[in-house]
Design a protein that fits this description.
The complex is a heterodimer of chains A (108) and B (137). Chain A is α/β, with parallel strands linked by helices and 108 residues long. Chain A has one domain: STAS domain (Transcription Regulator spoIIAA), CATH 3.30.750. Chain A is built from 4 helices and 5 strands. Chain A has a 5-stranded mixed sheet with strand order 1-2-3-4-5. In chain A, α1 packs parallel to α2. The N and C termini of chain A lie far apart (28 Å). By secondary structure, chain B is of the alpha+beta class. Chain B contains 4 helices and 5 strands, in the order βααββααββ. A 5-stranded antiparallel sheet of chain B has the order 1-2-3-5-4, with helices on one face. In chain B, β4 and β5 form a beta hairpin. The radius of gyration of chain B is 15 Å and the shape is globular. Classes of the chains: A alpha/beta (108), B alpha+beta (137). At the A-B interface, α2 and α3 of A face α1, α2, α3 and α4 of B.
Chain lengths: 108, 137
């Protein structure tokens, strides 16, 4: 199960992920990011505090946007990941490609 | 003691697979970090089979057996779909994954980084993939 909520805060778009992202529901994450971009977002901050699990299907969604975001000068940051989920980002080296912050304050 | 589950080839079964693995690995007193990573690796292989070898056909199934052996755990995944030998599969470079905007290819990288040994055999239409993780006693 996954729940995705978006909020606006000081010009940033917060994408609040909760639950488990796998191959059955990663399309929802994809659609949520695409919608923020279609709506003209310049900064997407992903709150990963409630993200219990993410498989390669979900990680691949983030990866697929990296080049576009860079070309369009749009920020994508992730914060408050649990240690075990952060470990998965590190195994793939995604922590070198996506800015990851320990908490919301440091991500802003 | 061995533990087994049969799941049908639909991506919604992956949650069921995780529940089974969390219960089984929890009973084996594996550290939480290892439980999480091993669950991920097994799920990646099963997701790959469900999507690519079985085209999400819910009539097909996959079997997983978790076997305790001295100093290691063996995850034996059996199916009867198109054989996919992940040992021969060349993991894509991360930069290539980004450049091609592909959403796949990362799963196999995870499996190869998390597991200590991978075995594959295909015999008379039955494919068996063994993922082996070593543990200190």
């Amino acid at each position: 199960m996954i729940s995705i909520e978006t909020q606006k805060e000081n010009g940033h778009d917060l994408l609040i992920l909760r639950g488990e992202v796998d191959a059955s529901n990663s399309v929802m994450l994809d659609q949520a990011i695409q919608k923020l971009l279609d709506d003209g977002s310049k900064s997407i901050l992903v709150n990963g505090e409630g993200l219990e699990y993410i498989s390669s299907a979900g990680l691949g969604v983030f990866m697929s946007y990296l080049e576009d975001l860079q070309e369009r000068d749009i920020d994508l940051k992730i914060y408050s990941l649990t240690p075990r989920v952060f470990e998965v980002f590190k195994i793939l080296g995604l922590d070198q490609l996506i800015p990851i912050f320990p908490d919301k304050t440091s991500a802003f | 003691m061995n533990h087994q589950i049969r799941i049908y080839c639909q991506t919604t079964a992956l949650a069921e697979l995780r529940v089974f693995l969390q219960k089984t690995l929890g009973d084996l007193h594996l550290p939480e970090k290892d439980q999480h990573q091993v669950t991920l690796a097994v799920e990646e292989v099963c997701a790959n089979l469900i999507i690519h070898s079985h085209n999400c056909n819910a009539k097909d199934h996959i079997e997983l057996e978790v076997i305790e052996a001295p100093g290691k755990l063996i995850f034996e995944i059996t199916d009867h779909g198109e054989a996919f030998n992940l040992i021969d599969y060349e993991s894509p470079d991360l930069k290539k994954v980004i450049g091609e905007k592909r959403k796949g290819g990362l799963g196999i990288i995870l499996v190869k980084k998390i597991m200590d040994e991978i075995e594959f055999e295909s015999h008379k239409g039955t494919n068996t993939c063994r993922l082996i993780k070593w543990f200190q006693a």
